[in-house]
Amino acid sequence: MSDRYYIDCAAVLSQKQDRMFRSLGRRFLALSQRSKVLSKALSEPPADNPLSLVKFHSPLSVAGQPSSIIVRAERLKMRGMPVALELDDRGVHRGEPLWRLAEKLQRALGRPVRDTEILEWYERWVGRSSRIAKRLERASAEIRRLTPALNDAVAAMCGIRFALVMEADGLAEAVTICTLAMVKNRQERESIVIGFDGTSLRLNGGVSAACHGVRGAGGAVVKTIDLYRAISAAKTGDALYLVFNRKRWDIEIVRNGSSISNQRFAYYSRVTGGGSQHAHGIGGLT
């Protein structure tokens, strides 16, 4: 499932009165924002470092340089920084030659630069990137750890028998295809059977749609018109939260992290010859 789905889940939880749900949602949103900021910082060169004025690639090759430069570069390499001390088997630099980087910097700065200056700037450059990368990994690890808790929290909040999340466009397309098939086959069109096995959604046992399971599995018979009513308020890019309880089913539309619609429907029922009404509820797993 996309990152957008989990961010939408967290946004919904962050607005709830329950302290646990609200705390979890806000924590996840904060981590997602932190991850976004760190990713951007990692991809952008630091403005206060002269190396940001030129293009170069790691590792920095000091092969053929004086011993004083080699010794200093060895210290950087021992600290885990990408530095090449020797040429490869073909006699070619393994990375950006120090002399070539010096020429680029001289043109960019309009003055000669010392090799020791370049090593200092390179040390700052790599050190900054390494620190950002470590922070980004910690944030990403925490996001991965909280992701299962998000699904559990959404399920607990709803008190559901089974539930799923999907894109509005996916459900609308599946319902349209299903309805056209019923017309073509001259089938009864008042209801649609929704089946969910925990990983995929099927309508009338055939038409499938991509979705993400939150909890459980099962099936239900719903009114076709209710499905159309439910998705009519949705737009491209919206997320749909479908929650199936024993006596009703709910659908929530989430747009850009905010809930804009929450509708509740009864299951499909019909009047039999004896006048009794049978509602087609849920058969499923908890």
Detailed description of the structure:
The chain folds into 2 domains: 1-158; 160-285, Roll (DNA Polymerase III, Chain A, domain 2). The chain is elongated. It is built from 7 helices and 15 strands. Strands 8-4-10-11-12 form a 5-stranded antiparallel beta sheet, with helices on both faces. A 5-stranded antiparallel beta sheet has the order 7-6-5-9-15. A 3-stranded parallel beta sheet has the order 2-1-3. The model is unreliable at 270-286 (pLDDT under 50). Helix 2 (19-43) runs antiparallel to helix 5 and helix 6 runs antiparallel to helix 7 (224-232). A hairpin with a 4-residue loop joins strand 5 and strand 6 (201-203). The protein is of the alpha+beta class and 286 residues long.
Helical segment count: 7
**Residue share in helix:** 40-55%
Distance between the termini: 22 Å
Strand order of the largest sheet: 8-4-10-11-12
* Rg (CA only): 29 Å
Order of helices and strands: HHEHEEHHEHEEEEEHEEEEEE
Question: Which whole number gives the mean pLDDT?
Answer: 82
What is the count of β-strands?
Answer: 15
Task: Give the low-confidence spans.
Answer: 270-286
Domain count: the total is 2
Described by the principal axes of the CA atoms, the overall outline is elongated
% residues in beta strands: 15-25%
Report the major sheet: 5 strands, antiparallel
Which structural class matches the secondary elements? alpha+beta
